[in-house]
Structure formats: C-alpha cells, structure tokens
Amino acid sequence: MEKELCVSERNGQKINQFSIKQQYRFLCVVLLYLMLSCGNKKEKEFEEVKIAFIADAHFQDIYAHFEDADYKGIKNPETGDFVNIRTMNAQLQSTRIFNENYFAFIEALDDIVVRGIKYVALPGDFSDDGQPVHVKGLRKILDKYSKNHGILFFATTGNHDPVKPFTQESGKTDFLGAGGKEQIITSAVENIKDTVAGQLTPIITTEIKKWGYKDILNEMSAFGFYPQKKYVYWETPFSKYNYENYSFDKATNASALENRTYAIDEFNRHPDASYLVELKGGVWLLAIDANVYLPNKKLSAISENAKDFSGASIGYNNVLLQKTHLITWVKKVAAQAKDKDKVLIAFSHYPMIDFNDDASKEMKHFFGEGKMQLHRVPNEEVAETFANAGIQIHFGGHMHINDTGVRKNNNGNTLFNIQTPSLAAYAPAYKLLTIKSNTKFQVETVVLKSVKGFNNLFPLYEKEYEYLKAIEASTIWDKEILSTKNYKEFTAWHLKELVRLRFLPNDFPVNFSEIFLNKTGAELLFSTTENKDSLVTELVSANLDLEDFKTWTGFHMIYDFYRLRSADELAFDDIGEIRLKQYEMVCNQLKIIDDPYLKEWAEIFEKSRKGEPSNHFVIDLELGEINRKSP
Q1: Which residue in 615, 619, 602, 601 sits closest to 573, CA to CA?
Q2: Which residues pair with 50 in a beta bridge?
Q3: In the predicted model, is pLDDT for residue 256 greater than 50?
Q4: Could you read off the pLDDT of 485-536 as tens digits, one per residue?
Q5: Strand-strand pairing, 182-186 and 171-176
Q6: Cα–Cα distance measured from residue 372 to residue 316, given in angstroms and rounded to the nearest whole number
Q7: pLDDT digits (tens, 9 = 90+) for 312-370
Q8: CA angle 87–219–294, rounded 5-degree value
Q9: Per-residue confidence at 25, pLDDT binned at 50, 70, 90?
C-alpha cells in the first residue's frame, strides 16, 4: 500500500510538472503572439508623413512693383506685363537663375498640391539677398498656398537671407532695362559709382535693400520662425520650458528675437533663428540656423554695421567654432526624441558631409583650394559631431546640387546627409521625404522638366542680345538658349554657358585646358599607344564604336563633369549610357599615363559618377543602410 502511494505521488508530480510545462509553453506562445501583434499593430498604425524640401529657390518677384519708386519695369511685348528682371548675361555668369525660377517655384508648389503634401520645408536661400520686394512677394505666395491648400511651410535661413545679420543698403547694376540695356536699381544714391554715356537713369528704391534677421523673420514669421497655435510643440535653443509644460503663450514669450541670441565676441550678440516644431504623427522637424557672421576685424564696441561682419557661406565649419550652443541643443533634442518615440528630421541650409563624392582632396590639389567652392566643404569633424549628437537624417542645400552623403563613425552612429537641388539650376528638382515608420524612410527626387511660362521672358532677352551685338560686346551669350523646349533643358543650357563663360576661365588650370579642351575623345582614349590593339579589342567587347569617340571633345567631358557634379544620378539619362561608357574607358587610360594633370582629372571624374544613391532611395535607420529604389 505504501509502495502504491509512493508511485501515485510520483505520478501526480509528473502530471503537475507536465501541466506546468504546458501552461508555460502556452504563456510563451501568447506572449510571442502579443509581441508580434503589437509590432504589427505599431507598423500598421503609423500614418505616413510626407515632407517636401525646396532648397535654394532664390525667389525674386519679377512682377512686383516698387512702392516708393515711379518705375514699373519693362513691358513684355507678348504678354503686356511689366516685369523687373535681371539680364540674361547676368544669369549665365551666375550659379543661379534669377528670373525663370519664379515660374519653377510656382510649378513645384502646384505639383506638391496635386500630390496632397501638407508640409514643405525651405532649407535656406528662399530669397535672393533678402530684398524686401522679393521677401514680401514670397510671403504672399506662401500665404496663398497655405490658405487655399492647407500647406504648412517651414523655413530656415541661408546665406542669402539674410546676407548679413543687419539690414544694409544695396542694389544691382544688371537689371534688364529699355532697349536691352542694363538698368541700375539701388536703395541709395551713394551706391552708384561711375556713370557712363548712354546709361539709363538709375532707379532708387528702399525695397532693394538687403534685409537683416529682424525684418526677414518678421515677414516670414508664419513659416516656422515663430510659434503658431496649430503647432503641437515649438521651441528654440534658448527656450526654458519643456515638452511636458509647454504652452503657446510660453513659446510666444520665448520667441522674441532678443531672447534668441548668442555671443559673437565680448561685445556683440547675433540672432539664431533655429527652432524645433512637432508635426502630426510625432514627427519632429529640426530647423538649424547654421549662419555664422564673423567680425572682419576686432571690434571694441557693439556694432550693427553690416560691413563689420563677413558673409555666412562657409556653414558648419564655423558653427563648430562659434555656435557650440547649437550642438548642446541638438543633443538634448535628439535624446528627447528617442525617449518620447518621435521621428527626428533635421534640415538646414548647409551640407554636413562632403558633397563631392569624396573627391574633395583630389579637387583641392587639381583646381586649388580657393576654386570650385571647395571652401564650403564641411570638415569630417562636422559629420562626426552631429552624428554623435543624434542626427541621423539631415536635408541640406546651399550647393545647388543633388547628392547623398553617408558617414558611419566608430561610435556606431550613422548620418545621412541629403543635398537638395536648387530650382534655379540644373537639374531643377525638389526632394520628397516619405516617413514610412520610425526607422524606414523613402526619398524621391522630383525633377521639374516642364514649367508653365518658363519662356515668357524670351522676347525681352532677344532685345538684350540685339543690343549686345550692336555694341560689339566682348562676351556674348549663346542665343541658342532661347530655343530650349522645356525648363530642364533651359537649366542645362544655363550650366553649359556657365561652364564656358565662367568656370573654364576661372577654375581650370590653364596648362590642363590647353592640352585637353580641343582633343577628341578618340585622341584622349589613345593618349598612349602602348596598348592600342588591346584597346580596340576592348571596344569591340564593350559594343563601342571608335568613330563615336571622335564626335566629342574635352569640352564635352568637362561639361558632363559639371552635369554629374550638379545632378549626380539625374544626369545619367541626359549624358547617355554609351557616352558614360566612353568616359569610363577614357578615364581608365588617363589613369595609367605619366601626365599628372590627366591622371588626377580621371580620378575626379570617376568619383563624380560613383556616389551614393541620390535619385530615388530608401533609408533604413535600424540597419544603417541606404538602397536605390526604382520609381
């Protein structure tokens, strides 16, 4: 009996153990199911958020009339409109278009409306030199799209808005005037230097000044620079409140410009227009004001004279020296975003990563450190600093180029810097960010090929061209640009003339130009005859015809280098697959010859066509990866 009882007890223990195991397994299955369900639920519940980024619009209100001057502009013979525009000659020697980008900006906004996008960020240079007449015109357009389509705009400052921290007298000598002549329009008589016989009477108007921070931010106040009741949350680097005790009244009190300044030296403090705003779905948009205006000399008192300070075109290299408060603030914001499960997207006017496909070292040696805007390339410390501060995705502008830069550091942090093209240069485009989840992001580059009204001003340029021919001007632009069929083609012509009229004479080494410009592709391919037979065999295997190499010259290769540098992957179709293969073969040959100029040129060119994805791509923050995506 005792034995039977023991057996029974052991059986009971086995049954209990089996029951416990079964319950444990059941609980594990339930827990796993709940975890997966929660994960799926979280992904499904995340509502996609789309943000368009329009950088470097350089908006000029060509139809605006000056309130304090009896001058309408010049009359367009075809439309009957009066316009204030710059000359074509001025446009073709500038890195930006001044006039047609007015139509491109409207086209981009209309495209954004059709796509149903409700958030638009403007990463600086939204105006061209912060002139009152143009900033006011821009505000009216943004107000219209906000009212009619419910779009919220968020701007940050660039080096052209404001040019200096304080308002200054200014003007331009190259507006287009009657008879195709240049027309001076200036804010003060003192700006007029020498007069020339036959010169048109200068126009004096205060609306052509260059505004400083105070006036620009007041005019653009509704577009992120100051809190709005519709914002979920808003702060600056100087705010004393936090997310938990936030109120619109507190934000309004803290937003006064005098409360948002930092020390530039022992006497002077400059405004900082940085801010953080929360959009729907827990998206935090971080607008960084990376403008730094260093004193031109040691100041012994407070100065609001714009001439006492440099421009701000260098960007983040100076931020690390002068705006350390921004780095502290960015760290705090990034940490809070992570703690509160917010999606943090940063944008500013300046790039955080090398924008030359990591060819800057070779370019400095080839062109010289003062050429090719190489002084604007951020030091590696910039990417390291902001990656460690918690920035993962940053949209920049300034350079008028399409590019993507990626930096992974030893701390395991990855920074993706997305360079937004300009609407006022080749290739004209804006970036569209789609936030798919907390870790997955899709970026599309929307190119503006067709732009309504882009050729409206061509009859006026005809008058300018006739005048330049009549006076036998030393440098005359190519009239073929007036035959372009669409806006993208127009910007490509703008770049081509810019290369011919400015970049080649100013940037390229004379010794290189003399031996390279007029050589055909075939001559460049056979720069050395040592391996001619193997080259011919290679051409056959690559389905390339030697005769095609004779149809282009070194100038075409240089122009296509600028197309690649400006548009990156967007230029591939314009250049063509065959021509790109030809360039690749030429570069392979130039790399093995003795000429150091040709060898270094080949290395630079090759890097320009092998960058990170920049057209349509996907970023996965969890994996730290970026991958191309077919549209």
Answers
A1: 615
A2: 434
A3: yes
A4: 999 999 999 999 999 999 999 999 999 999 999 999 999 999 876 778 888 8
A5: antiparallel
A6: 18
A7: 999 999 999 999 999 999 999 999 999 999 999 999 999 999 999 999 999 999 999 99
A8: 75
A9: low
SS (H, E, C) 580-628: HHHHHHHHHHHCCCCCHHHHHHHHHHHHHCCCCCCCEEEEECCCCEEEE
Q: How many residues would you count in the chain?
A: 631
With vertex at residue 106, the alpha carbon angle to CA 220 and CA 118, rounded to the nearest 5 degrees, is: 65
Closest C-alpha to 590, from 529, 518, 528: 528
Average pLDDT of the chain, as a whole number = 92
Q: CA 58, CA 96: separation in Å to the nearest integer?
A: 8
Quote the crossing angle between the two packed helices 101-114 and 132-149, to the nearest 10°.
Answer: 20
Task: Measure Cα distances from 64 to 87, 110, 251, 522, 547 in Å.
Answer: 17, 21, 34, 52, 53
Confidence of residue 27 (pLDDT cuts 50, 70, 90): low
The pLDDT confidence band at residue 7, using thresholds 50, 70 and 90, is: very low
**Per-residue pLDDT tens digits for 32-80:** 555 554 444 444 467 899 999 999 999 999 999 999 999 999 999 999 9
554-567 vs 487-498: helix axis angle to the nearest 10? 120
495 CB-near residues (< 8 Å, 6+ apart): 425, 426, 559, 562, 563, 566
Separation CA 420–CA 433 (nearest Å): 11
Task: Decide: 162 and 216 in contact? Cβ < 8 Å.
Answer: yes
| Nearest CA among 9, 176, 555 for reference residue 184 | 176
Query: From CA 245, how far away is CA 66, in angstroms rounded?
Result: 46
**Burial of 412 (C-beta count, 10 Å sphere; 0-12/13-18/19+):** exposed
Say how far apart CA 344 and CA 356 lie, in whole Å: 26
Q: How many whole angstroms separate alpha carbon 316 and alpha carbon 332?
A: 19
- Give the span between the Cα atoms of 91 and 98, in whole angstroms: 6
CA geometry: angle 495, 501, 505, nearest 5 deg: 115
Q: Which of 16-25, 424-433, 581-590 has the lowest mean pLDDT?
A: 16-25
Q: Which two tokens stand for residue 595?
A: 């000429």
CA 363/CA 608 separation, integer angstroms: 11
| pLDDT tens by residue, 179-199 | 999 999 999 988 787 777 778
The proportion of the chain whose per-residue pLDDT surpasses 90, expressed as a percent, equals: 86
Q: Which residues of 293-327 are buried (b: 16+ CB within 10 A; e: fewer)?
A: beeeeebeeebeebebbeebbbbbbbbbebbeebb
**Alpha-carbon torsion (295, 297, 302, 305), positive or negative:** negative
In sequence order, what E strands does 268-401 have? 269-271, 275-278, 283-288, 343-348, 393-396
The residue with tokens 């935090």 is 284
Three-class SS state of 488: helix
Region of residue 139 (left: phi > 0; alpha: psi -120 to 50; beta: else): alpha
| Residue that the structure tokens 């004209």 belong to | 428
In the three-class reduction of DSSP (H, G, I as helix; E, B as strand; rest coil), residue 584 is classed as helix
541's tokens: 């295997």
Given a contact cutoff of 8 angstroms between Cβ atoms, the answer to whether 464 and 87 are in contact is: yes
Nearest to 345 by CA among 159, 216, 154: 154
Q: Are 321 and 363 spatial neighbours (Cβ–Cβ below 8 Å)?
A: no
